[in-house]
Amino acid sequence: xxxxxYEVDGRVARxxxxxxxxxxxxxxxxITELERxxxxxxxxxxxxxxxxxxxxxxxxxxxxxS
Length: 66
Description:
The chain has one helix at 28-43; strands at residues 4-9, 12-17, 49-54. By secondary structure, the protein is an alpha+beta fold. Helix 1 (28-43) links the parallel strand 2 (12-17) and strand 3.
């Protein structure tokens, strides 16, 4: 993954948007990585919680709209 960090600690999978220079704006690439990370967590029987976070000062912006 290039724009998303995925880590598991116990029963929690933490998904961190990692585009702080762009306000963690949602791009097609980031959305694809989010989908894959959610699928990965769903397949892991140890994971019970998904935590979504963003690096930097902004959580997220939508940059998929024209």
